[in-house]
Each structure stands twice: as C-alpha cells, then as structure tokens.
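Q: A reviewer asked whether we had any structural model of the full assembly, not just the individual parts. We don't, so I'm hoping you can provide one. Inputs are below.
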Amino acid sequence: MFSSGRERNLRGCGLLLADAGGARCPPCAVGMGEFKVHRVRFFNYVPSGIRCVAYNNQSNRLAVSRTDGTVEIYNLSANYFQEKFFPGHESRATEALCWAKGQRLFSGGLNGEIIEYDLQALNIKYAMDAFGGPIWSMAVSPCGSQLLVGCEDGSVKLFQITPDKIQFERNFDRQKRSAVHKMLVDRQYMGVSKRKCIIWGVAFLSDGTVISVDSAGKVQFWDSATGTLVKNHLIANADVQSIAVSDQEDSFVVGTAEGTVFHFQLVSVTSNSSEKQWVRTKPFQHHTHDVRAVAHSPTALISGGTDTHLVIRPLMEKVEVKNYDAALRKITFPHRRLISCSKKRHLLLFQFAHHLELWRLGSTVATGKNGDTLPLSKDADHLLHLKTKGPENIICSCISPCGSWIAYSTTSRFFLYRLNYEHDNISLQRVSKMPAFLRSALQILFSEDSTKLFVASNQGSLHIIRLLEGSFKHLHTFQPQSGTVESMCLLAVSPDGNWLAASGTSAGVHVYNIKHLKLHCTVPAYNFPVTALAIAPSTNNLVIAHSDQQVFEYSIPDKQYTEWSRTIQKQGFHYLWLQRDTPITHISFHPKRPMHILLHDAYMFCIIDKSLPLPNDKTLLYNPLPPTNESDVIRRRTAHAFKISKIYKPLLFMDLLDERTLVAVERPLDDIIAQLPPPIKKKKFGT
Amino acid sequence: MAALEEEFTLSTVPLGAGPNGLLGVEQSDKTDQFLVTHGGRTVILYKVSDQKPLGSWSVKQGQIITCPAVCNFQTGEFIVVHDNKVLRIWNTENVNLDKVFKATLSAEIYRIHSIQGTEPLVLFKEGAVRGLEALLAEPQQKIETVVSDDEVIKWTKVFMVFRHPVLIFITEKHGNHFAYIQTFSSRTLSKYTLFHGQEEKSVIQNFTASVDRKFISLMSLSSDGCVYETLIPIHPRDPDENQRVVRSLLLKTVVAGNAPSGVALTVLDQDHVAVLGPPLPASKECLSIWNTKFQTLQTSRELPQGTSGQLWYFGENLFMLHGKFLTVIPYKCEVSSLAGALGKLKHSQDPGTHTVPHFVNWETSRGYGFGSQNSEQSKRILRRRKIEVNVPPPAFEQLLSTIKKDSEKDIEVELCKFLAVKRTPDFHAIVGDIVLELLGRHTTEPSFYPRNSLMQLIQTHVLSYSLCPGLMEAALEKTDVQMLQLCLQQFPDIPESITCACLKIFLSISDDSLQETEINMESVSDCSDPVQEKMDEQTEILQNGFNADEQNCDSCDRKLNQKPQDAAEETTSCPVVPKRAALLNAILHSAYSEMFLLPHLKDIPAQHVTIMDWICLLLDANFTVVVMIPEAKRLLLSLYKFVKSQICICSELNKIEVSFRELQKLNQEKNNRELYSIEVLELF
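A: Here is a predicted structure for the entire assembly that you could use as a starting point for your response.
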C-alpha cells in the first residue's frame, strides 16, 4: 500500500556500488552511533474525510475542504505541498468549494454562509449568509465574475463578485426540492431525474451535453436541447458521487461510493474520423471509501473522499517529461507538525482538532543491539487531555522545552497554560488576560530556555513575549515588511536565544536579532515554499528545507550560505533524495555533534553528516543493511553523508531527546482505516 | 408469408351484379385513392384507408358508362367512356360530367388502360390501340380493324416493359382463344393462338398475367378449376407469323370445376395468385391466396354473401364484391426467412433509414440452385415434355455449326433465334451441349470468349455445373465475376473448390474493377445509392482492417465500450462495398457442404480481412439462429458447465478472501498492542 515511487527507486538502487570519494573519508565517520528510539504509535490522529476539491488552473493550486470544515491549499507546482490551511469550525461543514475571478476562493456550507478566504493573511475574509438554508452546491460562471449557489430551499442564488466582496444579484427559484446537484455553468438546467434516485452531480458542456451522475451508479449523457438521454454508462453498484470536467471538455472524471474513479474521454470513433464519442477509458481504485470529490487538472485526475486520502493520479499521456510529476500521489497527512516535544521532561504534546493530549514517555534501563526491542521499566503515561472551548479547530500548539508551558491557538483565541509537576501529580493553570493582539496564532514557539514565547499572528506580525513564573510580559512585535501581509507559518529560534527565523509560504526567510529586536537579514527567496527550518546550536546555521526537497544551510552570523550548502548545491542532491514525495517537516540537531543534521519526512528519517562525502547518483543512497563481514575499506568507500532509516513510517514526528535517545511518532494507516466507517463491501471475485 | 387482413366495405350503396354492378376499380394518381366505376352512370373516387368517398360523378340520364374510369397519371385527370364512343375527361374540381371535356370517337372503345409512366392507351373493340393524345388530337380519325369478324375481346392488360408499354388482349372466336401482343417500342402487333393442350374441353373463365423480362406469363382459370400458365414472348421472332403457344398446368383445382357463378384470378406477385371462387362445388365462395412456386394454399377468406367474379389488386389491396358491397381486403406478403421465423427480423429503430435485412434473404434472392426449387424446375420441364412432345428440335445443328466458325455476334443472333422457340424436353441437355461447344472453341481459341451468349444460356435456368463443366473455370480464368455470380445463383451443384475459388476472386478483386462490372444487386437491394456513398467512405477507413491506434489498450477499451451502443449504427454500415456484398451473398446462397468447403477455405489468405468483418456481421445478424441450431447445443452445454464451474471458483475465492481478511485482522490486533516500545537503532 505504501510502496511509493520513491521507495521502489531506493530499492532498485541496491545493485549500485560507489567507487567515488572513499579516500577522503575521515576515520570518525564510521558508525553514527546507537540510539534508543521511543517508538510511539499512540497518537490517535484521524484526518477528516475530504468533502470537496477545487482545482485552480491559473495558479495550479488545489483547494481541499474536509468534513471538519478545514480548507487546505495544495500547490501542485511545488511538489504538491500543502502550503496553506484554514482551520475548521464545528458549525461550518463545507459542502461546496470553488475558485472564482482568478484566485479567489469561496466556500459554502451547511450553515448557509458563503465564505471567502484570504489567501494571504490565511484567515476568513468574510462570511455572508445566502439566506437559502444550507448551501449544497456552488459554481462560478465561465467568465469568473458571478457565483451561483444552490441552497437547501431549492433556490439558486446568483452573486456578483465585486473586487472585495460579493453582492447578491438574483434568485432562481425553480425547484421545490433542494438543489443537491452541482451547477457547473450558469445555465438554467436542472437535474434530470428519471427514477427515485439522487443526481449527485451534473456537468453542462458547451456543446449542450449534460452529464449527470447519480445514486444508481449511472453516468448519463443528456441532450440539453431535447432533454433526451443520449447515452448511459452503468459504472457502479453504488452511488456515483462526484464529477469533474477538464477545461478542454474532452475528458472528465467521476468518483463512486465504491472508491473507484473512472476516467471518461472524448475520443474519435475511428482513427481518422472527426466523429467523437464519450468513452469510459480508465478505472482507478485508489480509495477504499466514497470518493466524495473529484477534480480534473490538465495533467491529472484528483480525487478525495471519506478515506481521507487525497489522490493525484497523473494522466500519463499528458505528462511530457517522465519526472516525478508523473507518479501517483497519495497525500494522507498534513504537511505540518502536529506534535511538539519537551526534551527535558520527555513529554509529547499531540494536537487534535479539538483537544490536546500530553503524554510522558516511558523508560528502560536495558541496553541492546540494533533492532532489539528493550523491556520497558516504565510505560508511557497519558498525562493530560485538554479540550478546547468553542467550535473552532486548533490551529497550532506547542509545549515548552522545559515542559512547564503549553500554548495553543484557535482562530479567535490564544491559550497559554502553566504546568506544575509535583512528583506524579500534574496541575494545569491557565494564564488569563492574554493581550488583545494575541488573538490568533499561526505558529507558536518557545525558546530553548523556555523563557520566551514567539507567536506568529495571522496579520504577518511576530510577537515576543517573556514568560515569568505564572505571568508574561510582551517584549516586542516585529511588524511585517511594509507592503506584505503574508503570514508567517514557520518559526525557528536559535538555542542560544539570539536569533529568530520566520518564514511565510513564498517570500524568503527573515532572521531577527532578538537581543537588538531588529531584522537581521533575509535569506533570499526561493521558488519553492519552505517546509521546515531550524537553527543549529553554536554555529547558528539556519537549515531550511523546501518542498522540492532541497536543503540549504545559511550562516546567520555571516549572512550567507555555508560552504557545505554551496557544495551540495553545486553537486546536487542524489536523485532518489529529490524523488521523495513527502516534504521534510522537522529538522533538529545533535547537541554534541555539530556536523549532524537530523531531518525526516513521512517515510524516512535521515541524519546528514556534513563531514562525510556527498553521495552522487551512482552511490547507493539507502543502505539499511549493517556491514557484516565486509572489510573496513568497503564500508568506508560506501559511506556518505546521508544516513537514512526507513523503519518508522508513516512518520509524523521525530526528534532527539538527548544524545542517545530519539523519539519517533508513527501513525500506521491501518489504525486510521480501522477508525473509518466500514467501506462498501465489494466482492473481489465473481459477479 | 402471405396473409389477408381484416376486410372492410368501401361503398355504402349496394351494387348489383351484371351490367348495373361494378364495372371496374382503378388506381388514381394519389396513393390510397381509387376510382370505382359503377355499371350504369356513376364514378366514385374513394380514399380507401378512410373508407370514404372523395368525389362522385354521374353521366346524364340515358347515357351509360361502358368502360371503367381511369386516371391519367401524367395529368391527374380522370377519363371515362360512355355510350361506347364518348370520352369524358375531367378532374376533381369538376362537378358535373356533362359539362366537362368531351370527345366523340369514330369507333367503339373496349377499354382505356392507364398505368404509371405512360399516357393512357385506348383499346378499341376492333382491336386497334391508340394513345390518348393522338386520339384527342383527331377524335374522328379512322380506327382500323384488327380482329376478325365474330372475334370478341375477352380480357386485356397493359405492362411496362423496359419503360415501354406492352398491351395484351385476348380474344375468343368459336371457343378458340387468341392473344395479341401490342408493343409500342417497336410498334409491332403479334398474334398467338392459345393452345389448350390436353384440356380441350374446359372453357377459360378468367385471365390474369404478369410480366417477366422476356415473357408475359398469362394465367388462365379454366372451367375445370385449374390455373394454367402460358408463356408468351414479348418480342416474337417473327411478328407476322401466327404462332401457337401452349399452356401448362400451374395449379390444380383451385376452385370447384364448373363453378356456377363467377370465378376470378389475379396475380399478386412472382409467386402468389389470388383466386376468387368456391373451392368445392357445394361450398361458399372464397378468396384464396395460392403460392404457385410450392403449389400451396397460403390463406383463404370465405365470402358467404357471394361475389361477382371480379377481382382487382392494387398495391396492397384486393377489391371485390362481397354480396352487394365493394369490399377491400388488404393483402400482405412478408418475405419469409428463417431469421424472420425465429424473430430475428428486426427493424432499424430510426424511422428515416432503410431497413437492412440482417439475414440471408432466400425468397428474393432468386436462388434457383436449391433442391426444392430445382425439383420444381424439373417438374415443369416434365410437364412441358408431356405437352410439347411433338415439337421438333429447332435449328440446333445450324447453331452448332455457327458456333464452330462464325463471330460472336453471329452466334448471339443464332442463339436468340434458338432460344425464342419452344423448349423441347431435352432442352437442358441441348443448352449444355451448346455451352460445351462454346467452351470447346474457347479452349482452342483463347481470344474467343462469347460472354453474352454464355450469359444468355445460363439465364435459361436449365444449366447446372455438371451439364457444362469448364464454364466456371473459364469464368474464373477471365475473372468474370458477373458470370460467376450468375453461375453461383443458378447452378445447384458447384463443387466446393470452385465455390472457394470464386470467394477468393470476389475478395481479391479491387473495388475499382468492381465498379466497372455489372453485378446483380438484388441480394443487397436495400442498400440504396446514398447509403452506398456512405459505405464507400467507410470502406476507405476500414480497408486496412486494423489501425495502429487499436494497439493502445485505451482504444481497445473504447472499442469494447462502443460495441453495444453502436450496434444499430454498425449494422447499417457494411464493411464491403455493395457490389462485393452482392458477390459474397451469392457465395453464401450457394449450396455447399462444409466438410468439403473447409479444406479449401484454408487456402484463403488472411489478408482478406473483410471476410472476417463480413462473417462477424453475418454471425451477429444470425446469432439467435446460430445459437438455436442443434450443432450449437454441445457448445452451449459446455459453456454452461464452464460458467457454472467458474461461479463455483469465484464463490470459493470469496470465501478464501474473507478468511484471509479475518487472519489479517487478527494479525493487526497483535501489532496494535505494541503502541509503545523502545527500540535500538543503529545507523550506518
């Protein structure tokens, strides 16, 4: 199930043996040492099911809404990175999502409101009641200037999109029953229902063909002029729930409740005739549950549903270069951290949509060799279950390295708690009277000594707060650069507490001097968004990972890229490294080994030893086998800077607790599936 | 199968028989409208489907209509004759016959004939015939006498033969009957004496006739209740000579002998006649439909209130008197076929398009080669032998000598002469000898290929492969597909190797050369010209049979998906041009035994992809038939067994799958227990 393209490639590499760079090997490089790994699988995280997807051709971005109201923005040009998200809200179930007027994103939901999202500030621009009850469908006119919503009361309402808002224009009150079908173009054509079945979606093509998908498993083609059924494809025994047509109207995709996605194409009847016909071409089964939403980009079929996976299936015939855009993508986990860790107290803070969980890791006194599972002298403890107040989802959370502070934020409130430990007892105390400016945070970070709190607000400003015993003091606010309103999503502070790095989604990384409370420098902007950043101890080198899998090391004191970073940019990363399909979500450092950088994505954990030679494309990148009876020479020859482990997956978090201890948080997919409603049973064999 | 539908009455006014009864029913220029002439004074125009009169015209008191009104198809006017000599011409707008155009002629008129495609023809009682226009130009012109004294015209009919009218009328004098054929293309009048043969005593009661290309088939119903057929050549060898024609028995005792009241006979189509009269001496009068080919009664309808011995047939309606009312009985004869019998006869749903028969059309395909029909043929020959024993063989010797030395043209002329005379009992043998003679000269003198003569000889329908071995070989050698087609249609005994050789030639001959040859298209007659254009287009596409695109799996899918939806569309387009289709049809119609055919079929190169398309199409069309034939039973049984075992396997697999899933669940639970562990990791 998880044999992604990357994995296969890594395995395929096993035959290659490198002969380069052996001579330069420093003797210390052999063996990265042993780690005790706390392997955690009790993070009971279940992503919300996907409800809608909307593809924007102009920006090549995909908006995905989930059943908890979360809206995520994926940048398909940036290696499918989830670059933005809008937190969900209990009463705001999104039922319809669409892009309009270029890159403006609208949604409609069961609360009857039309919402426009601010993609810069990452908040909701406004919410406007359509006064038609729950909104079930939403479409934009071909020119992009008008928005139509289909409401529970059966009305279809037309809104004019003005530069900063939308304005109600007129009401089409045509159907007594609720308009559950999608209106894809602004023509007055209502669903054609023949039997007692629900039309889940319709598409109106410019040639007058109407395509409907319904609960009886049919895809039907209608002639809108005569209202007659032209063609009928029975494709499923269950509902066909979604449909999306390509811009060229020569291909469309439908998703069924059986988890199947069918591709239909308009193809010539014979090789040299102009007569064309809609033909079901390819079925795909990448989902186990209902495919609630599909989208059609020029090069890929995108689908999502109850099983929470977002699947991007490239159309091989449309992909010009067989690079890794041509690989199937299955995105299950958010591209951001949901876990923070208190190294000092061995605590893990898990962030869920509406609560936080605090766990204390267990311990062992035993030792062992590679691969051993050690007997526990103390099991992990669930210390705290902190429920949020209100309907809003948690945006971000953090526990201080000392373990005495917990902070989290929702869209409208910021919470700070003080934790007191008395032996096995733990008490929680909320710090009240938070300042008004601390309303909503996109990212929260504590300094290494837990005396400072850094908060990235959604207005683009950065607040620095000094934490005192049970109280706090606002130290400073870095205002956003003039002219930009881009919110900062990622923060990193240097262990010495002097430097703060902050990054938005597109502009470069800003580095602030905390002592002098001023902007120190800005790392030049790069084409691809930052997925993780961290500042190394002692050297104060800023390590930045981007969604295209590039890793940069930037010396903050020198305000320039380090020599190592230049070298690796010159030589280039190993091709298998670049073909990984999940972003690096966390970077950390070894306190005693300044040459080591620890980083991980969902499927691997890597220690980069900068003192070792870089691998080239002929080198075996991933070598899980321990050297057995090979001589030291061969080991030295094959040793390179990237030490990769793929034991833990899907890996949501990995960090170094101390010199010899790691913590890895895994979330096995089977555990997620076990918590989903049972899928429609499909016989694999026979009729 | 011929069938009579529900009858209905046309006139509300009771009609009497005899002079005050019904004079005639004639077609008007509009379909479904008929002119009914009542003996006496009235002409009524009926719309038959509505059963209502559209107009009625009467002559003045004292005048009497003497011949049925007809419609001039060229002008749409109606013409009637009253008082034997007075022509009245009018149209639907006229109300009073007295005020319409009138022409008084110098001689008495027997009948005006009017059929589509020509001007009305006026037949005078003295036997002269005039075109209407000529008559109207000079009404008082002198009309010559053709028939002798005491000779009375009994019956007449007109046909269109090669776009020219041919008029036949029968006269009687002292119990002898004479047939006069008036052709207008060559303006000849020929007279034939109808020879009664052995049934001298019987009196001819009614006539009907149909026309072939060369013969008028005159059928007569005699007082002995039998139907006799007389073949009268349209173009006589010697028009001036009084010739004798012999009649032969066609149907035996269709009505009771010496029926007291009127009997009538009319030809419905190639194989069917309608007979009016009592089937048994004591029974009531009946309308019966007889199949002349199989000599079977197809259907009959009792007319308990009696009839008048008058019967007309136009389009799909039979008109007769039933009691005192003019009655219409619609008649339908659907082409019978095996496929039709099995319900495979499906019609294209699109009302605008032609119905393309998906089955082999045995009825219209002129398959004279088949057993039953062949025996029919020989039966006729036998009958003729009985009748025509005394006729001496014609100048056979002379023809043979002509063949030996003269030019093809001369041979053709001689052959025409030879074929025009009556057939002797050993006619088929003689024809075979002639063919062999021609082929003999062809072998010694390869440039000599008397195609026309050979074709003519084949069309006598008496030849078979064994009578003239070498004929088809010669045609194969010359790639004469037209002749091959003809042979395939006519010969009952073609060896399979020859059939296969024909098939090879039919498949390999280029479309261009096909275009130039004249091929009998009857078997694909439903493919009209506009369709043909479309087919030509289609052929270009499919000529290679395979296009590279289809290697792509996607397009295979597409193909599969298309199939069911486009079945209708596909079947309307044939993968071969109609001419080739006609040729292939000829192969399919020919008699063969698959045991002998198969070894030869293997010789057909696979490049003839069209044959695959064709066979597939044929199989599609006849699928239900194929499934129901006994040979398919074993296949169906084993298919059934296979599917059954397949279902068993599937159900077992499903069980295994469920078991595995349970095992997987157990396995997962085991793994799940390890929610937390501390492990040792060493990175290398």
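A: Points you may want to mention in the reply: Residues 630-672 of chain B form the longest helix (43 residues). Residues 190 and 239 of chain B are 5 Å apart (CA to CA).
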